[in-house]
Amino acid sequence: MSTSKKNQKTLRFALILGAFSALGPLTIDMYLPSFPEIADDFGTKASLVQLSLTACLVGMGLGQLLIGPLSDVYGRRKPLLVGLVCYLIASFVCAFAPNITFFIAARFIQGFAASAGIVISRAVVRDLYSGHELTKFFSMLMLVNNVFPLIAPVAGSGVIAFTAWNGVFIVLGLVGILLAMIAGWKLEESLPMDRRVTAGLAKLFSNFLVLLKDRQFTGYALAQGIMIGGIFAYVSGTPFIYQNIYGASPQLFALLFGSNGISLIIGSQLVGRMTHRVSESRFLLIGLLLAGATSLAVLLVILLQGPLYLLVALLFIFVASIGMTSTASFSLAMETQSHIAGSASALLGLFPFIIGAIVSPLVGIAGEYTAVPMGVILLSTSLLALLAYFGLVRRPKKQTAS
């Protein structure tokens, strides 16, 4: 096969996997511009609408914890197809929820089902690639995946410009139908029978303990998870900060929020394209330090009530650091886990969503007209990620007595 044809096939494969992985940002980001409208329609507080995001994040985290190991047993295609069918059903249920409580519960189920696309797409990558090729392909997958934070809020604001917020979830249901068709017709099984885990579920879940006892894997997973989890404070807080504090329209909010998809792409592609010159470990450290510096600057701008353009610019740089750390840490963590890639992918996916579920409602704890909680959370998570990295990955070895 010629190099050009091989590259075309690789790109096509990345597009397919990226579409499944994109269920995460689509499910999270597409309804963000409609937060104020949902609160008004249900006659509820902003914190309860943010709780629907928390429920979705918890569902995504727990779903990966179950679906990842199951894909090590049954292969990648079957769990993915089941998850996509459940997703499309849950999306339509969200659209016709009669009250905020029902809506929150439906969002949990929707997030749980969406996790199949997230965890299995990453496991497929590890099934087929290793070393620098793993980093390069994952950065390509991130390129596809990170386009959707650009598209999702803009698409969501476009939908609510012509219809009510319910229309966003009808569109997500249609996306679920399309992805189920793609999975059934285009995705080949990447985990052959002889590489599948044959033990019972008790033994299967003991693999999590094996992974957690691996100090470096846990360090990479926590550094990535805390960083990505912290950014959900930004995801949950900016709909109200940009629109209520700075007076941005839903359409302007969508453009400002979506622009950070570009910064994610920049960060992840920098790692993928420079991995032969700069190691993944070096990129991870640079990304963590950059996140710490910019999150401190964000908090200062908030406390000093700085202009919107400065806040947006700093958040752009902060999100770029997330692209760097997530790509580098994924490759470093997965490199030695080919035998249990589904379980490893599940843990890597669990930490961000559990942490995100914790911090998301905290953003609104002081009301809809202050950005201070978001700034504090971004700085705190950046420092905790650095602590996890230096405490577990870079911890100096104990000197043995001679």
UniProtKB/TrEMBL annotation:
Classification via CDD domains: MFS_MdfA_MDR_like
What SUPFAM superfamilies has UniProt attached to this entry? MFS general substrate transporter
Residues passing through the membrane, by range: 12-28, 48-67, 79-98, 104-125, 137-162, 168-187, 220-242, 248-271, 283-304, 310-334, 346-366, 372-392
Q: Which controlled-vocabulary keywords does the entry list?
A: Cell membrane, Membrane, Transmembrane, Transmembrane helix, Transport
Residue ranges constituting the Major facilitator superfamily (MFS) profile domain according to the UniProt record: 10-397
Primary localization class, coarse: membrane
Q: How does it sit in the membrane?
A: Multi-pass membrane protein
Per the record, GO CC terms?
A: plasma membrane
Instruction: State the Pfam families in the record.
Output: MFS_1
List locations, semicolon-separated: Cell membrane
What biological-process terms (Gene Ontology) are attached? xenobiotic detoxification by transmembrane export across the plasma membrane
Which domain of life, per UniProt? Bacteria
What GO MF annotations does this protein's record show?
Answer: xenobiotic transmembrane transporter activity
Please report which protein family the annotation says this sequence is part of: Belongs to the major facilitator superfamily. Bcr/CmlA family.
NCBIfam families the record matches: efflux_Bcr_CflA (TIGR00710)
Q: What is this protein called?
A: Bcr/CflA family efflux transporter
Species name: Paenibacillus nasutitermitis
